[in-house]
Amino acid sequence: LASAACGAGPGAGGDETTATSSDAEVLFPQQRPGGESMMAETSGELVLDDEGCLRVKATPKDPGRTPVWPAGYGLDTSGGEVRVLDEEGRIAAKVGERVYMGGGEIPKGQIKLADERMAKELFERCPGGYWVVGSEVKILHQHG
């Protein structure tokens, strides 16, 4: 299932392309059910780029890696925000927040996506590194 969202909301990029970014749908690639289980971990800010790609960026200069979400996860774009929901419908990650996720980096040729058309779109729209998301995703609450 492809989830479509119009508009990234205020503060999504802060550059000159705000007028056109509303035309891009948020791409939400998902793994096949029973996908691989990798034990690495990463954390960084979840951002939405001008192509509609969610990326996890460890630092502001980091190009980021595109998460490939578990099969039961979903996307919620209501209220001008972009949130990732876990299998229970709870917010697991939110654009603009620092997130932690288990899983592992994987070459694009080894990614097993739920939808083959999604694979083509993912690799064309969201070039770079890919992170196959494991079982744990959470927002890191910042103190101070």
Helix percent reads: under 10%
Q: Please give the number of β-strands.
A: 8
Biggest β-sheet: strands ordered side by side in the sheet: 2-1-7-8-3
Mean pLDDT: 83
Sheet with the most strands?
5 strands, mixed
Walk me through the structure:
The chain has helices at 18-21, 116-125; strands at 40-48, 54-57, 65-68, 74-76, 83-85, 91-94, 98-105, 129-139. With 144 residues, the protein is mainly beta. The strands form two sheets. A five-stranded mixed sheet has the order 2-1-7-8-3, with no helix packed on it. Strands 4-5-6 form a three-stranded antiparallel sheet, with no helix packed on it. The radius of gyration is 14 Å and the shape is globular. The chain starts with 17 loop residues before the first helix and ends in a 5-residue tail after the last strand.
Task: Give the key terms.
144 residues; mainly beta; 5-stranded mixed sheet; 3-stranded antiparallel sheet; 2 helices; 8 strands; globular
In short:
The protein is mainly β. The protein contains two helices and eight strands.
Question: Topology of this structure?
Answer:
Layout: H1 18-21, E1 40-48, E2 54-57, E3 65-68, E4 74-76, E5 83-85, E6 91-94, E7 98-105, H2 116-125, E8 129-139
Parallel strand pairs: 3-8
Antiparallel strand pairs: 1-2, 1-7, 4-5, 5-6, 7-8
